[in-house]
Amino acid sequence: MKKIMSLLAASTLTLSLAVASEQFSMSDADRALYQEMLENNPADIFVEEGSELFDEYVTEEALAKFLGVDVDNLPQVIATFPRYIPQVDEVLGLDQVLQAVMHLNGHKPFKLKSAEMFEMLAYAKSLANDEPIAIDIHANKKMEEAYKLGEQLFMTKRGKRGLSCNSCHSKEVVGLILRTQPLPDLGYVNAGGTWPAYRMTKSSLRTLQRRFQGCMKNALLAVLPIGSKEMVALEVYVTNLAKEQKKSIAIPGLKR
Amino acid sequence: MHRNRKLMLGAGLLAFSLSEAVHSADLKSVIEMPDASKILKKDRLAPPKKYTMPKECITTDPLAIARGEYIFHNLNGKKAKKEPPKGLTKFVMVNGKKKPKQYGNCVACHNIEGAKGGGNVGPDLTHYKQYFIDTGVRSYAYVYQQIADPRVHNPNTHMTVNLTTGLFTPREICDIASYVVSEKK
Prior knowledge:
The structure holds two protein chains of two kinds.
Chain A: H1 2-20, H2 28-39, H3 43-57, H4 60-67, H5 74-78, E1 83-85, E2 90-92, H6 94-104, H7 115-126, H8 141-155, H9 165-169, E3 177-178, E4 181-182, H10 191-194, E5 197-199, E6 204-206, H11 208-218, H12 229-244, E7 253-255
Parallel strand pairs in A: 5-7
Antiparallel strand pairs in A: 1-2, 3-4, 5-6
Helix pairs in contact in A: 3-7, 8-12
Chain B: H1 2-30, H2 37-42, H3 62-73, E1 91-94, E2 97-100, H4 128-133, H5 140-148, H6 170-181
Antiparallel strand pairs in B: 1-2
């Protein structure tokens, strides 16, 4: 009897997985709004503003020069970010390179977490739209280290609930429901290629590292600052997941 | 003369590499690269810990069960709508600042009687007493340990750690466990 009940208990466990997944995170009205926004992404305005800032403070010529490439090759190079930057001997995000170029152009760089930087980053990254994501985690030792650090941070449980990114984004839980939210496969949803994106629930333009901060805050992991070696490393890791899925850059994204 | 020229060449090379170094230091000071290592160090999770269930932990006291239920179904004191049962507050003082009290939000991953929007990352805990406790599949001590620190049962668990992190007191873990194993209508 005990054995039968235990078997029964075991099978209810598996059954419950199938039953509960019938929930949806979006109402039909939300879905309609999402469709509408797909055709008319509110983030387009922000990208447009970013383009004005970019032309005033950065320019394609100066960015290409800093990266040591022809202007014509900018899209392919932008598709390799985060990448190793020899001038500082570090792996940097594109936003940090924009700071460097602003400085070299004689301007005070925007703060990484400023709305101006989010907009300018969105525009700069959109120059690479439709380019396949081309991050190269084997480019050199620093890139390899950044990837390893990113992977390690992704897997490490910490914070007040002892969770890691992997607790909610591992292959084992993808598609399962966390309080009405299906857990996304970060490679498959192309997180690396679709941020900066417009977030409908926040009514604003957000960057990938800003999105990481959102997950950290929600799950009670101490929030890491944008631009830290660790955040860039996480971006390297997550961007590589999108590359493995053969995704291309598509800025600005549109997110729930 | 000969020697002098060599010196000058050397000085020139030095000046060149110096300007390169200044350049790089200069760039490093305008690019934001904040240090996160201290934040991470403070946020570290202690290794898995085995616990002995306190005496009189599992109870049928309706108030304790109500507190456990409240912790199970809510995320924190800011988000929670209903008033908490006696013995539980919505806000706590942390370093002299009033902060929302964090609850278990177990419902994010588990379905259970009366769950609204229950998740399925973890097993369905509906009829837990009937299926798991009454059959002897699980003991009270197992449930206590699972909630306190599930890594002892499964090092790769996706479940939250609730006692080793200091998020709850042993009594609160007992309240939650009492709710999970209670007879529900």
